[in-house]
């Protein structure tokens, strides 16, 4: 999802979640459900970005580690850990993927004029992977470009 | 017409066209086989009849001429020739377009029809042929007709009360009769019940009319062929009394339409025997039921869920140790297994459904390239899961094209090598354990390993000093970008194709191999699993993680000898009853941390033609494995072909033995080449 696509609407509803010390906002329409931690089956040879799969109500769903993808420092996790199940478009088809979150904060509505493009000088993140960012109550909130991220992950292997 | 009716017709049409095409192609090799001529005629007639019944009048009109030609062949008036077959195939190809109301701006259809009619009447201009066609309709040549009667004959007909339910449309029948020249059509209301007993779904009307005297009972029989109707024809009085007092014209011919038996009066020579009573479309519902494919998929999904839940229930019952619960779980296990087998059987489709289109492909290609080819099929009844069948079409088309385009020599080359003038391509299918083997064999020039090797080196696929066996060299043609065709033809040589073939077959959890002998031909063998939905699996454990191996590839399980427990620098072999079997350590391959326990097992699997051992920590047991596809995010993990959900709700990966072994070899190669033997 590109920034100009988001800006077409006046507001956007997002779910905010924590990854390490960073806060991420996931567009609510993409979110299918939030689950308590599930047993993860490791896929040997799959690499660190999508290291395993989980059983989501009888479907085998890949579990991505956005911390690794976005180079966010791991600060450990506790009982607030959750799994977000998302429905995205992958290679032109609908696909169900899951991402882990260290905590899920809230559902909130953001005015799109407050969302800014990511400064190109901010080298900490691959620029394609972020749609934009806005100032939240406690620091910056990143909007990851999930379609782009997963499309790249699918091509990497 | 309702969409549902239209869908039924289209589905029937597909089958009929397939059968029609097969008949026409078979006629090419057996032009005098009257059984085939009859079959073609019947197919055409059914297409015409159901087309008219469903309101496709253009289609019916088009087929009419087409059918007339075959009627004449049937009558022995016209011989089967290559030109007729060519036109007939071209005409057959127009039928789907007619049904879909596609326009025909170039007048192609009319051209085909005119050519067909022209064949029928070599001496006459095409315009005069309609009449000739009508005469040929089941009747001998004109001199055999009885003396021209005068005055009209009278027809009465009445549909059976349930005819509407079977799709009968009286207005279409009346139209058709009007086309034959019916006049003074009146409805017969005598059977109409009082309003309180009237069921509007039933047909209560009858009709009577006058028909021109030359309309024969047989022509009427065609009109009524597809409806359940009682009809009677009172023929006209002959102009002059019959010479010997024959009673031909005096009795009314009364018929019940469906068993269209030998009631037709014309000379016996004109109507050959052996045209069996035809099946009416509505009757097909009795013995077999057509089910949309997606419902079968939904059923299979539901059975898959059931099998997973059943495993969960069994595990819970075992934990709880409640005898009543255990008994119930066992019964459910039995039921689930029965349901699973029944569902899988339902999804099995004979390979015949695929082969029909290949016959045509081979014929067209061999014509186009001027390489006469005989195409034979063995084991058409071999059944495979419908999903596998659907996905097999494209790879087989590629393989067959290659066989004709690259494999087959030209006629001149064949003459030089003293081979039979006509090339042979054989497609065979057979069951082998839990697999189906499909082979495409040709007797062409065969593949030249040296040339393939040189090409692969030139294209940078292998380095010049790579040591490869002959089968490894042949396998190079499946590499992306590989093509030995000197020039790119319309058919092949673009270097795409064979790698797509391999990818498709692998996505079906199958494999393929090539055998070839210079000058003698090439055989491509596809190995495919019977089903893609549920397989028998062997559950194993490696470093606390569980994996499933397809039982079909497991040969035996042995203990790992204590002296082999630790990895060595050089290659490892097991001595199994005097045979050396290389083995792979799963822990090392999957980068597992920690040390294995004191007792490890080795699962001996078949990978291609080789036996390879896989060292695992523990054998958990066998299980019914409901295969779930891995997502695109894991498409590159070749050693895993899918995943399944175990009784405790966790996910176990299904290992792809061939890729696993390939991966193990490439990992080990730097240390010890002998493993790759």
Q: Which structural class do the helices and strands of chain B define? A: alpha+beta
Q: Give the CATH level 1 class of the largest domain in chain B.
A: Alpha Beta
Helical fraction of chain B equals 25-40%
Distance between the termini of chain A: 23 Å
Query: How are the strands of the biggest sheet of chain A laid out side by side?
Result: 3-7-8-6-5-4
Low-pLDDT windows of residues of chain B:
124-149, 239-285, 486-495, 670-677
At the fourth CATH level, what is the homologous superfamily of chain A?
CheA-289, Domain 4
Number of H- or I-type helical stretches of chain A: 3
Provide the β-strand percentage band of chain A.
over 45%
Q: Please tell me the overall pLDDT of chain B.
A: 77
Instruction: Name the shape of chain B in a single word.
Output: flat
The number of distinct β-strands of chain B equals 22
**Biggest pleated-sheet summary of chain A:** 6 strands, mixed
The CATH architecture assignment of the largest domain in chain B turns out to be: 2-Layer Sandwich
Q: Which consecutive residue ranges of chain A, at least 5 long each, have pLDDT under 50?
A: none
Summed up, the domain count of chain A is 1
Count every beta strand of chain A, where a strand is a DSSP E run of 2 or more residues: 11
InterPro entries (chain A): CheW, CheW-like_dom_sf, CheW-lke_dom
Domain CheW-like (chain A): 11-155
Pfam family, one (chain A): CheW
Protein name (chain A): Chemotaxis protein CheW
